[in-house]
Specification:
alpha+beta, Alpha-Beta Plaits, four-stranded antiparallel beta sheet, 3 helices, 4 strands, 33% strand
Length: 100
């Protein structure tokens, strides 16, 4: 089973420009990991400062390696400076995707 991670993080709207480079580094490094199928952030168009997170991993082992990676530690270290507060992520087991 693949793992789909969906959720949000929140930071002050005026911190978004400052957060983008750190988010880009995190996404680029995560996308380069073995087992990462997709990794994306998207700013909500109606709620400034709300960032939607979407990740797709081939399995739990790949996600575990991701959580142990240096780039996730670096990303988490930026949270206080960027004032990242609420973080709500959920993991779902999913089968292979199909067109809708």
């Amino acid at each position: 089973m693949m793992l789909l991670i969906i959720g949000t993080i929140r930071l002050p709207a005026d911190m978004m420009d400052r957060a983008r480079p750190a988010m880009q580094r995190m996404a680029d490094a995560s996308r380069a990991e073995d087992g990462c199928v997709d990794y994306a952030y998207a700013e909500d168009v109606f709620d400034r400062g709300l960032v939607h997170v979407k990740e797709l991993w081939v399995d739990q082992a790949a996600l575990d390696l991701h959580f142990a990676s240096p780039h996730i530690a670096q990303w988490r270290a930026t949270w206080p400076d960027l004032q990242i507060g609420d973080r709500e992520l959920r993991a779902y087991e999913v089968a292979e995707p199909r067109p809708v």
